[in-house]
Amino acid sequence: MRLLPRSLLGQVMLALTAALLIAQGISAVMLYRAASERRELAITHAAAFQLLAGARRGDRDGPRGGERRDRRALARALDPSSEGELRFRLPRDIRYREAAQSPLSPGERRDIDREAALANLLSTQGVDAEELVIVERSLLDDELTRAASERYPRMRAQMGKVPDNLLVVGMRQAGSNTWQVARLPIPPRDRAIVRTLAMQTLILFLVLVGLLYFVLRRITRPLDTLALRTRRFGGAGTPEEPLAVSGPQDVRRLIEAHNAMQARIGSMLGEKDVMLGAIGHDLKTPLAALRVRIESVEDEAARDKMAATIEDITRTLDEILSLARIGRSDAPPEMTELGALAASVVEEFEDMGSPVTLETSGRIAASIHLTWLKRGLRNLINNALRYAGTARVEILRENGHAILRVDDDGPGIPEDRIAEMLEPFTRGEASRNRETGGAGLGLTLARAVAEQHDGMLVLTNRPEGGLRAEIRIPL
């Protein structure tokens, strides 16, 4: 199973998606860090302001005025419509007060980073903090907020709805024994950044992928057509109408070059066919005349030997011309039941008394060039009979291929010579005797027939002995 796409369109789209996700991931990290830094800076400034302004507000407020302000603050804090959000707001007497000792409770962990930031900020305002303590605790863990929640049930209910923790800041200035203590809820992290980034990523993805898909399809569509035309021309070798020029300028130049190359190759193949036809005619005519003349030879043995030589030359010439013509037929392939095709070929050998058997496994139909596939199967059977004396033909389906298999019980082929045996004029028997070695074109013709059908010829030695030859045709 392949996870990566094979096509140019799929690979570019995958690369764009990966690059976009990586870029947005980096942007998300940077924006998150920037938002966190802004949030910490806002918390530090709020704590400093509360410490500096809390004392002045406490001095201005009398006992009764301070009580009235605390009640109004508590009412605003408990009002669900106040400020339109769930931010919890502490009453003033809790937000700031002065104490005789540090607000740090036993076992609590001090926030060293925030202490350093707040100390630097206070020093810029001319405040000399001799001791500074910052801790973070939950609302109900703080003594003052817990006591207030016990006095006001509505406040306790509201505290259970907010996710805020409480930041407790204690400062003792130089020369003073009084601790100034500020309490402020820590606001939750802004989740709008995540939603914004997700929406931004979606919009970018739709826009970029949509535009890139349109551009790539304009490039890959003519390339796909060009690949199909080239594959078809490479298999059949039959010239077709020039491919329509389309796409970007680079692709247009490629199509124009392909059309020119196809026209040139088609012209050369046409000239080759004319030349081979002329050669075949010019050679067969004198051979026929020579065959007539040898009838006047009185020595019967010499006459039979001459006639056999002429027939050998004629058959070799036919095989050479057939090999040159494979794939040059203008006739389209036709849907054929391969079992019936093999049966007709096997009957030819049975009529000649040759020991050939046939096995089929169900109906297997394929689009083939009937005459050429018969020729290829016939050559494999001839090869088996020549070297083993018998042949077993089997038609089967395997892994999406139709297989025309021919087994024999002969000597097989040395493993290092199997590829060599598929080349023209290569024979398994070294003599030039037609009965034992042939011209060395049978397997080459069978391979050419298989390749004409986008398949292959496979030769393997059977473990029990003998050779197995298979024409594999994709279905």
Automatic annotation (TrEMBL):
The chain crosses the membrane at residues 197-216. It is an enzyme of class 2 (transferase). Residues 58-78 are annotated as: Disordered. Its main location: membrane. Residues 217-270 form the HAMP domain. The keyword RNA-binding does not apply. Its EC number is 2.7.13.3. SMART domains: HAMP, HATPase_c, HisKA. It catalyses: ATP + protein L-histidine = ADP + protein N-phospho-L-histidine. Residues 58-73 have a biased composition (Basic and acidic residues). The keyword Ribonucleoprotein does not apply. It is found in: Cell membrane. Residues 278-475 form the Histidine kinase domain. It is a multi-pass membrane protein. This is histidine kinase.
